[in-house]
Amino acid sequence: MSRVHRSFSRASGGALRGLLLLGVLASGSVNAQMNSATITAATINPFMLPCFNHCVIGICFWLRITPLGPRIETTLKVKHNFPDLVVTVFEHHGDQPWLEVSPISLGAGVAAQSYGLLSGTTVQGGRHTPANNQEQNQTTKTQQDTRRMQVRFYEAEAYGHPLASALGGSLGGFGVAVPGVCPINTTSLFPYFLSGTDVLSWRNPEAELLYPATYIPYLREVRNDYFTSVWGNVFPRHGFLSVQSEPRKAAAVMAQRAADITTSSFNPHVYIRARGAAANERTDLWQNLYPVPSRGCGPFGESGLLPSFQINTLKDTYAWQLWRPYQCCLPNRGAVFIREVATPAVCLRFLVPNAAEAANSKQLGTFK
């Protein structure tokens, strides 16, 4: 391990311990409704097999040196999807739905509150307001109500999936080699993005004024292919969203923004990049986890993977997991890689156990 990597690991570990300490001190306000077991159960549900989308796309050649001389070995090159990131969206840090990471979230909330005290601003009730009452004195109640409906603010956080480390997570490296599955790029429960610690950029729209997508309409939007259902813009990537009356759609846009930050490089944000494919609002595969797990996945805007009105949360708290694409030569420990040869894709086709039940589940667990 390089000296730079060791220094980075120590720094990130120290910051994480600090957030955990703050979270433990504030743990009296935890309101978690979901845990790692429920996330795992939603992932390995037989209905989710089509989201895995496993294909053999080539053959990899390896050289192994044995006492009897060199020997050529082969493994398969595969591609598949895996939900390596869990993104939670909520209005207040005490409403983090994932039990195991709630202390980290509360610690980030303490950092956000400290920023509010120092800067003279607070984030309350889904809207950004000054700490003093000057704006309230200058604005009528009707105007305040209109603004509250038009501008929403959410916190967003991205963590490694509970199963990631078991499959060879990026920092741990102690995972088992599951036949036919590539090593996963994230580490279980690791906080890759916390909006509470990204206070300068997540609470200030001016942080991303230099990005062309901030100004060009339709360039980066969560929508369907026919522009008939536009949920919101990906850029600028902050916690505010205007002109979106449906809180579930606004929360989905926040999840997309958090994933875009977490999976890309050189952003004006405080985060740790999750290695692997960058998020893309047109092709990302999202699965709803809270308030009810969905039995399907797809991009926001087009597939509408949202909780239904019947299962809407009272506190605007949501969670999704992002199925990202993976592609690799299956490992062959102790051998030296030589080359790979592409072959026509051979994909596994999974049959849903009960098509009628799946359709009913999708109607109850999603919203279009």
Q: Given the C-alpha coordinates, what overall shape results? A: elongated
Helix tally?
9
Topology, number of strands? 13
Main sheet properties? 7 strands, antiparallel
Strand content: 25-35%
Cα-atom Rg, whole angstroms?
22 Å
Structural overview:
By secondary structure, the protein is of the alpha+beta class. 27% of the residues lie in helices and 26% in strands. It contains 9 helices and 13 strands. It has helices spanning 3-25, 36-43, 49-52, 102-119, 134-138, 141-150, 199-202, 247-262, 355-365; strands spanning 55-66, 69-90, 121-124, 127-130, 151-153, 155-160, 191-194, 221-223, 230-233, 240-242, 285-290, 318-329, 336-347. Strands 1, 2, 6, 7, 11, 12 and 13 form a 7-stranded antiparallel sheet that branches. Strands 3-4 form a two-stranded antiparallel sheet. Strands 5-10 form a two-stranded antiparallel sheet. Strand 1 and strand 2 (69-90) form a beta hairpin. Helix 1 (3-25) packs across helix 4 (102-119). The N and C termini lie far apart (48 Å). The relative contact order is 0.19. Mean pLDDT is 78; it is low at 1-29, 127-142, 144-148, 170-175 and 355-368.
